[in-house]
Design goal:
mainly alpha; elongated
């Protein structure tokens, strides 16, 4: 079954819009504080799942609608996630264990980097109707 297209767009445009939307949501979560991250990720393997979700941004790199500096910034963030210590990515259930992992200092520069990337992508996201929803 083929996904429904938005009227006037191609499947490729719809795919870009969806990918951007999911990536922006992951960036918003990464940019948030530890408590909000745990809440957003359901207190289940927060570090590992968040790293995975943000790393999917690598598939946006190369889309013609992104500038080379935006592609570079995505690539830099994805690469920086590889520096997160394994103990921050360990499987964890519940708020206490996940909160402890997400409060590790290794996440702080990534939070700032995610916030900066959200700003850098704002014009791209607006053009592709993937701007973050307030309160999301």
């Amino acid at each position: 079954m083929q996904p429904a297209e938005t009227p006037g767009t191609s499947q490729r445009e719809d795919a870009l819009r969806n990918a951007c939307s999911y990536f922006v949501q992951a960036l918003e979560t990464l940019a948030a504080d530890a408590e909000a991250q745990c809440e957003a990720m359901g207190d289940h393997n927060v570090g590992r799942e968040l790293k995975h979700d943000v790393s999917m941004g690598r598939y946006l790199v190369g889309w013609p609608a992104l500038s080379s500096s935006q592609c570079d910034a995505i690539g830099q963030l994805v690469a920086a996630l590889d520096g997160v210590p394994q103990e921050c990515l360990a499987a964890a259930q519940g708020r206490p264990a996940n909160l402890e992992a997400m409060r590790d200092a290794a996440w702080e520069p990534l939070r700032r980097q995610a916030s900066e990337l959200l700003n850098a992508l704002s014009s791209f996201c607006e053009a592709h109707a993937a701007r973050p929803r307030s309160g999301a």
